[in-house]
Amino acid sequence: MAKSERQFVEWLRARFPVDATRVPIGIGDDMAALRVSGDVLVTADMLMDGVDFDVREHAPRQIGRKALACGLSDCAAMAVRPVAAVVSMALPNAWSMSQAQGLYEGMEPLCTEFDVALAGGDTNSWNGPLVIDVCVLAEAWPGLRPVTRNGARPGDVIFVSGRLGGSIRGRHLGFPPRVALARELRERLGDSLHAMMDLSDGLLLDLSRMCAASGLGAELDARDVSAHASPDAHAQSAADGRPVLEHVMTDGEDFELLCAVGAEAARGMWQQDVAVWSGRPIGRFVASGLWLKHEDGRREVVEARGWEHFVES
Questions:
Q1: Which CATH architecture has domain 157-301?
Q2: CATH 3.30.1330.10 intervals, the chain
Q3: Does domain 5-140 have CATH number 3.30.1330.10?
Q4: Tens digit of pLDDT for each residue in 49-95?
Q5: CB–CB of 38/141 below 8 Å?
Q6: Rg (alpha carbons) of the chain, rounded to whole number
Q7: pTM of the model
Q8: Which residues partner with 261 through β-bridges?
Q9: Which of 69, 259, 271 is nearest to 182 (CA)?
Q10: What is the largest distance, in Å, between two alpha-carbon atoms of the chain?
Q11: How far is CA 138 from CA 41, 117, 132, 133, 142, in A?
């Protein structure tokens, strides 16, 4: 296929046909049109070569998959249903048509799995690195209100939906967006699921954001947090000498769910061994501060560290 924007758009239209009942106007026009049942929720994630992936090591399909998966993880964070995605990218001038197509081929399985329509976007090329931005539009599941990060209450139990740390070893490219799990939690916990978000920048930093939004503090149990260490966290610790617990608490891009659950509901759900409870609870919300409680009972103030963009070096 010839390398041109027109040919690329035609390939996209053929590769990603849309359901006209949900997307009356799709790829190829100046704007897309969506038909949804109520409020539209919007998220956008920009990924850049050298920061979020490395084109020297990672295939276009891996990069494209991650770009869409990040937006889907935001949908999981609020327990909402993804509907459509709009993709914009700045392609390096040296890239071939097959490389550009590979980005979308990486998104395709996720579009199918989560019934997401690729509704449009924009493609440019330049003498610079690959930049890709995915905007995902979503709606509430029938009968379920979105969950925000500002509803945690004192005494709420803190849970995470999986193992943490060491995602840089490859898991950051292939993580499963927890969309279905988030819906299950909302259905089963109802209003006892007080707050939720996804862990994109590290447990401590993201937990501090939930605390700030809710006007609270949190106390983590060192033993229980350590129990959530992924095999990658152990491998990374062995490679760089940093403690496993540090990797669990500060490594970014785990994309698991961080949940604040009412204490009574948490006891009931934990006993039922629901999928979200990958292990024991990791802590609770308190009046103020960010604390780590050690096995000997000692409480230590911890810094909200993790990955942050746009900070002074």
A1: Alpha-Beta Complex (3.90)
A2: 5-140
A3: yes
A4: 999 999 999 999 999 999 999 999 999 999 999 999 999 999 999 99
A5: no
A6: 20
A7: 0.95
A8: 157, 193
A9: 259
A10: 67
A11: 5, 11, 20, 16, 12
